[in-house]
Design goal:
about 325 residues, Immunoglobulin-like, eight-stranded antiparallel β-sheet, 3 helices, about 45% strand
Length: about 325
């Protein structure tokens, strides 16, 4: 009997110790910092404006639409995210939650390291989505047909083996002036402080008091094939003889040296560059890290698209370059 009691006490103590260790381990694991969805991705608002669909769609007749294009950057490797009806919402100024009704893939950078899984309903191939003055054409600017979002329906899952970026557009059935914010991937983008046209990575005030340079890349359909996650636009100063300083990067691509800020290339080729001020002289815009060629100066006809800034230029100043071309092979 004594032996049985001893065995019973021994087993009870062992069980108590095992449970204690399990609880302690669980508590320790719970206290360890976990990588949340918000920590895996960075969001940037690229475009925000009133939207419409062409040709006219009867199901959206009389419904106001607001278009939003967001760049999603994976901050780590081997990350996944899923976007759908309930995971992409906007909040109105009166507190209503408004799910997105249309989703489209505008641009995928680093596609060799990314994969997409689509499920649900896509639209016909002849849709054109207009967000402000910018057009997104199915089979043209869009890498995927627009997707109609419905409850428990369409979704888009993307995963990155390595760091990369994807630009996704959404249409919300609400007036632009009534929207306060947009939420996805456990993050919220406040809209009331953002500009509404040709929105780039950097937020600029509505009434910009410096120098604004605008243009449209007319060969966008051909050029976008060479644009990837590290591509950007950059202003360069031209010497009196029109010369530039060139170098070769670690990948053997040519680059043009410049001290001006790097500007993300918008998803449809319509670009806007803002500067507080510029010295008098001649300038041009270069697309850096374009395919294997590296740097490519934007052209207008057979010449570079020059920007001339006079001495004592009155501000604010807007320079309209019109249609320009990125020379590609």
């Amino acid at each position: 009997m004594k032996n049985l009691k001893g065995i019973f006490y021994f087993l009870s103590a062992a069980l108590f110790l095992t449970l204690s260790m399990s609880i302690s381990h669980s508590a320790l694991y719970a206290q360890m910092p976990q990588n949340t969805m918000a920590e895996k991705f960075e969001l940037r608002l690229l475009q925000l404006d009133n939207a419409q669909i062409e040709p006219h769609q009867k199901e959206y007749e009389g419904i106001p639409l607001t278009g939003v294009v967001v760049e999603i950057e994976a901050l780590a490797s081997d990350v996944k995210a899923k976007l759908g009806y309930s995971s992409v919402t906007s909040v109105s100024i009166d507190g209503r939650s408004i799910p997105a009704t249309i989703m489209f893939l505008s641009k995928l950078c680093g596609s060799a390291n990314a994969s997409l899984i689509f499920s649900g309903t896509s639209t016909s191939s002849d849709w054109t989505i207009l967000i402000g003055e910018n057009k997104f054409v199915s089979g043209g600017d869009l890498d995927m047909m627009p997707m109609i979002l419905k409850e428990n329906g369409t979704s888009l899952q993307f995963s990155f083996k390595e760091k990369g970026r994807v630009q996704v557009g959404f249409l919300f059935p609400e007036n632009l002036s009534n929207l306060k914010s947009v939420s996805l991937l456990d993050k919220t983008i406040e809209l009331h402080q953002q500009t509404s046209k040709d929105k780039l990575v950097e937020t600029m005030p509505e009434a910009f008091s410096g120098i604004t340079i605008k243009g449209v890349i007319s060969n966008w359909a051909a050029a976008k094939k060479y644009i990837c996650e590290d591509s950007f636009l950059q202003l360069i100063a031209l010497s009196k003889g029109g010369g530039i300083i060139m170098a070769i990067d670690s990948q053997g691509r040519r680059i043009i040296e410049s001290m001006f800020p790097k500007v993300s290339i918008p998803a449809n080729g319509n670009f806007t560059l803002n500067f507080e001020s510029l010295d008098a002289g001649k300038y041009a815009i270069v697309a850096q890290n374009i395919g294997e060629m590296g740097a490519s100066i934007l052209m207008k006809g057979k010449k570079s698209a020059e920007i001339k800034i006079r001495k004592d230029e009155k501000l604010p100043l807007t320079v309209e370059l019109g249609e320009v071309v990125i020379p590609v092979k």
